[in-house]
Amino acid sequence: MHQVLVNLPDVDRLLSQSYHTLSSEPVQYTLMTRICGATDSPELKRKSENSWKDLLEPIERLFLNDAAAAAAIERGGVFERAASFVTFSADVKRWESSAGVRVVTPDLPDKLGVVEANLHSLTRDFGACLAIPLLYGQDFLDRYSQLLDDFWKFDNDIFPLLMMGIPSWAPLRVMKEGLAARSRLVNELEALYRRIDQHQRGEPVDFGADMSDVSNVALERNKVYNREHWSFQRRGEGDLAVLWGQNANTQPMLFWFLAFVYSTAGLLPRLREEIAPYVKLSQTSPLEILSMNLLGLCRDCLLMKACIFETYRMANEPASVRYVARPITVKDGEYNHELKRGTFVTAAHSLIQRDPSVYTSPDNFEPNRFLKPDPESGKLSARYGALKPWGSGTAACKGRTFAEKEIVALGTAVISLWDIGPASGTWDLPAMVPGMGAKKPVKDVRVVITRRVLL
Description:
Blueprint (H helix, E strand, L loop, with lengths): L1 E4 L5 H5 L6 E2 L1 H11 L6 H22 L2 H10 L2 H6 L18 E4 L8 E5 H18 L1 H6 L3 H17 L9 H29 L14 H12 L4 H16 L2 H14 L3 H9 L3 E3 L7 E4 L1 H7 L1 H14 E2 L2 E5 L3 E5 L2 E5 L4 E4 L23 E3 L6 E3 L17 H18 E5 L9 E2 L3 E2 L1 E2 L4 E6 L4
Parallel strand pairs: 1-11
Antiparallel strand pairs: 2-8, 3-4, 4-18, 5-6, 7-16, 8-11, 9-10, 12-13, 14-18, 15-17
Helix pairs in contact: 2-11, 3-10, 4-16, 6-12, 8-9, 9-11, 12-15, 12-16, 14-16
């Protein structure tokens, strides 16, 4: 039995109940078995129950800590990557490969280069190429040439089908190809964890792979896997959920953020003016970023934060799912609802996001709606308000701090260095494919990209 909560006033308090009452562990286990390919068994269930909190701890230490998340992103080489967002070259960067890049005008010292590209594919893979090495090391991304193609095929094609309960044996071509991509992902993660294990035991590492930049998240998770005697295949299946959680929502949201910022009249110059004190640009051509105060951007740039919040409202469909471990009564005004043990409950946070009684002109991108005077100081502040893009309660998204800082860092870098316009001459953003999490565009957005020139 599954129950749905819609706009419950006290939902945060309800979902903050201890895991003895409302638990996310069965939800995570279902994700691993139904979506990530693990075979349900009493042994796996026992190992999962003994491990899941300890497996989450290293994720929380990196992805929920402001300083740790900012330091990790800065180590990712944001400045260098942003300078090569497009390369005007036949020798393209990894993130350009799927974007249908076409050089319209070569980039020459006396002539501004122009490139056409598919913005969704470009920004999605640009973000993934920063994020994945921060978790698993650069060698993992470099060694697995099909990683991005396989990941998006898994996420876009079969994740929604499996979530809906369509069996993996369904005679659908999309299912067959998606399962093959999932198998490759699990196999590569399994091989990675073999290398991590060799590295931690002081043994020769397969292929002589460089393990020096593998994050403490993966290293600490491997210690937990070893303690509970997880097989390497099960480790690959368990970490597919981590890889998915790191990228499936954040990278499409980076696309929507940039699409809204560049397509909304008058917004881009306001954002550039706001972020300018926190981004030091070169006086050379082409323009380069010399330094970026990421913590300052996240703390002080209210319009930037409001644009991100509005992007979440427009293009994200969050929900919080819990297993009812003990019966509980939910008060809803004059009504009482009994949640029975052994059932699931979902808080559908997204249902208010296009509600005109909550957000005026809900179909318009209006970031100013999130800028409000502080009731005590009177100073303007950017607040989520009723918006819950990360879910709610104790099991809210573990990567929220890292994800927001990634969008701020990469968004700021692109805005600082590049001008982007519609290839057709007029912005026409596509409709969105509904689903749980970040919405996908029904088609890509063809754009022209040129280097920004300071006047």
